[in-house]
Amino acid sequence: MPKARIATTPTQTAILKIPVNDVPLTRRILWGTPSLGVVRMEWANAVQGLILPCNWSQGRVTPLGFPVADSQNLIVHEALTGNWEWVWFLEDDNVPPANTLILWEEHMRRKTAPIISGLYHLKGSQEPLMYRGCGTGAYYPGPKTWQPGDSVWVDGVPTGCLLVHTSIFKVMAQTAPDYTLRLNGETKRIKQIFVTPRDYWIDPGTGAYQMKVGTSDLYFSRQVIRDNVIAKAGWPTIAKKRWPLLVDTRLRVGHIDRTTGQVW
Fold first, then answer.
1. What is the mean pLDDT of residues 67-87?
2. Is residue 3 part of a domain?
3. Domain harbouring 59, CATH code
4. Residue closest to 86 by CA, chosen among 159, 29, 171
5. How far is CA 149 from CA 61, 100, 141, 146, 252, in A?
6. What is the pTM (predicted TM-score) of this model?
7. How many domains does the chain have?
8. How distant, in Å, are the alpha carbons of 106, 114, 150, 227, 246 from that of 238?
9. Which of 67, 150, 209, 235 is most open to solvent, judged by the fewest CB atoms within 10 Å of its CB?
């Protein structure tokens, strides 16, 4: 049974619940941040400086002390049980620009795509974290690929700053296995939608024990495409695209070094 690596607090939420003229509040976007509990001031300042659209409803959930995939599954659990329309994953080393929610509102209103990522880069480099094809490396800008400011269609995105329509998770939850996490001394049963892939094998040539470890974000991207989740979730036009995941390169997200504070 997986356990948090450090002391945990309950999943935290702060949700506006006051009706206006008895009109039910639309639960539009749930903002989730996996964290071990320590963040840089640069990240905190960026979050506090976000511009909120008018008449905006949002919730916040911050699972503390869990591996990333477990935190992501707790966030999805809150989104599904709380009937949220969209989920925004913002990791605590991704520094969002002030207009992030303005751009998200544009995509949400237009329903541009069910899975949309901001653009950020590998720490210490200008390698963009966006991919076309498995094992092909990063998808770099260029005269025949894309330019900053473009909307770029790919098949692999990270989860550091990712907007996902909840319909995607509703479809995946139908077949995802259940598992339990320990949370404040109690067990919580949730769906295992995000997974940190691990493969183990014995090398037949050397007899050595080998292990390959992946990341939950690219595994999620491949799973969505492999299982035709986008079409099943009611986005048939997007599902027909060769590259059905969107990166909005207008949304230039900083990737912060937690030790030095340098933002890449």
1. 94
2. no
3. 3.90.550
4. 29
5. 30, 14, 11, 9, 9
6. 0.85
7. 1
8. 17, 8, 17, 14, 10
9. 209
